[in-house]
Design goal:
Layout (H helix, E strand, L loop, with lengths): L51 H8 L1 E12 L3 H12 L4 E5 L14 E3 L9 H11 L6 H21 L8 H10 L3 E4 L1 E9 L2 E9 L4 E12 L19 H8 L4 E2 L19 E3 L13 H9 L31 H6 L39 E2 L13 E3 L18 H23 L7 H16 L6 H12 L2 H4 L4 H18 L8 H26 L17 H4 L1 E7 L5 E7 L4
Parallel strand pairs: 1-2, 1-7, 2-4, 3-9, 7-11
Antiparallel strand pairs: 5-6, 6-7, 8-10, 8-12, 12-13
Helix pairs in contact: 1-10, 2-5, 2-9, 3-4, 4-9, 6-14, 10-14, 11-13, 11-14, 13-14
């Protein structure tokens, strides 16, 4: 059975585990033959499966550890989550695919927002202006959290030395070391464990050695960051929708996949020390839309390539190209990343110019990613809770809709990640204190481990790099990802479904590095399907979502968020969730 096809039932494979399995190889290992005539795909031959000796050599040993709260990811949200969960009395373990303070987008953030009514704007006025700029798609609960907690986040970061170094490695590790919080780095978690209807930990593999790890935890906080397609030019190569994919496969609701990040140029990153930003009426506006992409789609690039400068000014004849949906008035906001992290709008001008007269380039460098805080697990409340008991998310892993489906405030992303991480940490600690630990059995852990290592044991199959490039070729063109239409989205979905059904189940790894890539590729393909289905569903244009066949905003039908989840038969379904009235 292909675990990623539309017939995959979340609780259908590892019944006792309760769906905590997954990714690539359900049919490939342990002599499980692919069903004959499986959607026309020939059965996968694996010569009866690897020998026990080869299997044991590949998988190595299994390490098991316990924690009250498991934090996945060591960026801004993850560090705040770990610190606040620890300070609330929980035994905390932080796991990072890379290393704390060095992976994800946090190291490249230069601006962080600090709200203070003394700057001249009241909280009420700020919320109203944000709603207007976000075309009423923001979640006021999380916008309010940003306003209420950003000052505390900035002050705490100062105490860590955050503003004293261009890279944040020392500052981000300081509070963890002071509290002796356990940290495990260079481990990719691939599966969330589920038991008795609630999350029970996670499992994954060490990147540098033949060894897997099972973490039994009462609560899990996903701080895994944004979801990208490994585009060139932006620092999201390691952020491959791992958190969304793990959560979706155990039944979590995901949201925000129709929105797109419109950063148009390579981020400078690591340039200068971070700066704080404050609130003023000029900063609250819709930014990083899709106007440049629309112009290139209609008139072609001006410099011979899709990434060439199309020239300044609004798109000729483009819909609603006024101040709200238009590019920011100065080019440095476009290049620097007004939503922050990268650049934070204060990282300097784009190469070659400013004020819209320089090379304004189109999106694509951050392909696969939604706007910061506009994708990830769908929050069930104002405390970062998912619909899976014990599972929380924060930062770019939580579809908090802090700013809606567009950017509205320079530096708000980094501050929002800190505020949400702190809240999720406290919430998860309270939950962990209220429940008993439940453990997935060793037998089920061994089944998951077989699933993790199946691509490594496969004798024939597709390289993850090749499958990734095929997926990128389908998804990254601006006439698919940014300038959308029913016909093209449906065509792209057909290709992605083919990759999902025919290539992902045959991913093959020649070493541990490629084994990680196999899991990342499977996650990116799932993210691609989510983005296409959400984009097909939203039949309007709003924020960073542009449909040329539905160019107008339609509040009567689409003043809602789109949730993605598995239905009872394991199919991916999309449903509306109304935006609460302000």
């Amino acid at each position: 059975m292909n675990p990623l096809n539309t017939k995959f039932k979340r609780r259908g494979f590892l019944g006792a585990v309760g769906g905590g399995c997954a990714v690539i190889s359900a049919a490939a290992y342990a002599g499980r033959e692919m069903p004959v005539g499986n959607e026309g795909r020939p059965s996968m031959s694996h010569g009866g499966g690897p020998s026990v000796k080869k299997k044991n050599a590949a998988e190595g040993r299994l390490t098991q550890v316990t924690a009250d709260v498991l934090v996945v990811g060591g960026g801004m949200a993850g560090v705040f989550a770990a610190v606040k969960a620890h300070d609330s009395g929980a035994r905390v373990l932080l796991v990072d695919k890379g290393s704390v303070g060095r992976s994800g987008q946090t190291p490249f953030a230069r601006g962080i927002f600090r709200f203070d009514e003394q700057d001249g704007m009241s909280r009420e006025e700020y919320l109203r202006k944000t709603a207007e700029a976000a075309e009423y798609m923001n979640n006021p609960a999380y916008t309010g959290l940003l306003l209420d907690q950003s000052a505390a986040v900035v002050d705490e970061l100062k105490s860590w030395g955050f503003f004293e170094e261009a890279t944040y490695t020392k500052a981000m590790n300081k509070p963890l070391r002071e509290r002796k919080i356990r940290v495990i780095e260079r481990v990719m978690l691939t599966h969330l464990l589920e038991k008795d209807g609630r999350v029970a930990g996670a499992m994954g593999l060490y990147i540098d050695k033949n060894e897997s790890i099972a973490i039994h935890a009462k609560s899990v906080i996903l701080c895994t960051g944004a979801s990208g397609f490994k585009p060139t030019g932006w620092q999201i190569g390691a952020q491959t929708a791992d958190g969304d994919a793990m959560a979706y496969r155990i039944g979590a609701e995901i949201s925000g996949k129709e929105w797109v990040d419109g950063h148009g140029g390579t981020n400078y990153g690591l340039e200068g020390k971070p700066m704080t930003t404050g609130s003023n009426t000029e900063e609250i506006r819709g930014m990083l839309g899709v106007e440049q992409n629309i112009e290139v789609e209609k008139n072609g690039p001006s410099a011979g390539g899709m990434m060439g400068p199309p020239g300044g000014g609004p798109p000729p004849g483009g819909r609603d190209s006024g101040e709200r949906r238009g590019p920011p008035p100065d080019g440095d906001k476009m290049a620097g990343g007004p939503g922050g992290p990268p650049g934070g709008g204060h990282g300097g001008p784009p190469p070659g110019g400013k004020g819209g007269k320089g090379p304004i380039v189109i999106g694509g460098v951050s392909a696969g990613m939604s706007n910061h805080k506009a994708e990830g697990l769908f929050p069930q409340d104002d405390r970062c809770s998912s619909n899976i008991p014990g599972l929380y998310a924060a930062g770019d892993s939580l579809c908090s809709m802090q700013n809606g489906g567009i950017y509205t405030q320079v530096g708000s992303s980094l501050a929002g990640s800190g505020a949400q991480g702190a809240l999720a940490g406290k919430t998860a600690a309270r939950y962990a204190a209220s429940v008993q630990e439940v453990r997935v059995t060793d037998e089920d852990l061994n089944l998951i481990r077989s699933d993790i290592y199946a691509p490594y044991l496969r004798e024939r199959g597709f390289s993850p790099r090749w499958v990734t490039r095929t997926m990128q070729g389908v998804m990254i063109p601006n006439f698919i990802l940014y300038v959308k239409s029913e016909e093209r989205l449906q065509a792209a979905l057909t290709y992605i479904e083919y990759i999902r059904d025919h290539q992902v189940p045959l991913l093959k790894a020649d070493d541990l590095h490629e084994l990680r890539l196999c899991h990342e590729t499977a996650n990116m393909v799932l993210n691609a399907e989510m983005k296409l289905r959400a984009s097909l569903m939203r039949k309007e244009s709003r924020g960073s979502h542009y449909r040329e066949d539905y160019p107008e905003r339609n509040d009567d039908e689409w003043l809602c968020w789109i949730k993605i989840r598995q239905d009872k038969d394991g199919n991916m379904e999309t449903v509306k969730h109304p935006v609460p009235a302000v």
